[in-house]
Amino acid sequence: MIKNINDLVLFLQILKDFKSKTGIKKNDLFFFVKQPKGIIHWDFNSQEIYEFGISLKLFEEKNNRVILTDYGKDIIDKQEVEFDLNSEQINYLTENCFFNNSKFTELFDFLKLFDYIEKNNSFILDSKVYPIPQKIETHLLQQLGIVTVENEQWLIDTKYNQFIEQIKEDYKINLNQQQLESILEEQKRIGNLAEYLTVVYEIQRLKKNKLLNESTKVKNISKSHVNKGYDIESFSSKSINLRPNFFIEVKGRKDRQNSFIISANELHIAKKYGKKYAIYFWNNVGSSHPPTKPTKIIPDPYNNLKLKECNGCLSYIVELEL
Q1: Per-residue CA distances from 64 to 13, 23, 27, 71 (Å)
Q2: Class of domain 5-98
Q3: pTM of the model
C-alpha cells in the first residue's frame, strides 16, 4: 500500500483535467502520471497508488477506462494547493471513504484493540501492552489523522470516537456465538488457573511458616462473591479464630505481558484493607509449564502503585517493570 496519501492528488488532478464523462483509458492515465510535472519528481509505485484510490472509491475502472467517482470529485473540488491534501480533504476522505469500507478490515481489527479511557475522552492503545502489528498499514491511520502516537500510546482523535464505537459494536455483533464463547472460555480458563495457582502457593507458604491450621482455611471466593474486590481469603499471620486477615486479588495473563487492569472497586477495597491486601500477578499462565509462584506480589497496592484516580473511571491499566 502507499507510503503517502498525498500521492493520490496527481491521479485525481489528471482525471479531473481530462474532463471526459467516460473517463480516460487506464494506459493513458499511467502515461500522464509518469510524465514530469514542473520540477516535481514523483517517486512512488503508480500501481499501488492506483489500487489505493480504487479501494477508497475515489475513482473506478469500467471497460478499461478510469473515471472519478462522486467522492473523488468532492475531494478534488476541495483542493487548495497543487500537491498536498488539506485537513478538510483528509477529514472527508477518512469519514466517507475509509470508515465502513470493507477493504480495510485488517485496520478495523487493529482499531478494535483500543479501549475507551474516560478521563481522556478517547480510545487508547498502549503499544507496550499490545505490540503493534508489523504487517498492516498502521501508518495510514496516522496520515488520515485518526491516531497520534505519544510515548508509545496510540490515541484516537476524539472526533472519530463514534466511528471506533461502531467498529467495536459491529465486532461484537459479527462474532458468532461459538467464537464469542471460545474467547470468554479462554479468558475464564486463564483466570481460574491463576486463582488455583494462588491457592496452592498460599497453602504452601503458610505451611512453610508453620501456620498449619490457617493453611486449611485458604479459600477462593471469586465465584461466590463476585463484587468483593478480591479473589482469595488467606492469612498473613496466626489467627486464633481462623478468620482470614489477608485478602488477595489475582491477575493472570496468558503470555508474558507485564500489565493488568485493576477496577475502581478493587482499588477502593485495596485502600480499605491497606497492608492486609495484595495483588498476586501471574504471567505466562497459558504456557505448557505454568509458573509455581507469582511473577510479582504487590502488597498494599493502593499506596504502592500510586495510581492517579479520576472521577468516573471504571478501571486503570497497570504496567509493571519486572
Answers
A1: 19, 10, 8, 20
A2: mainly alpha
A3: 0.51
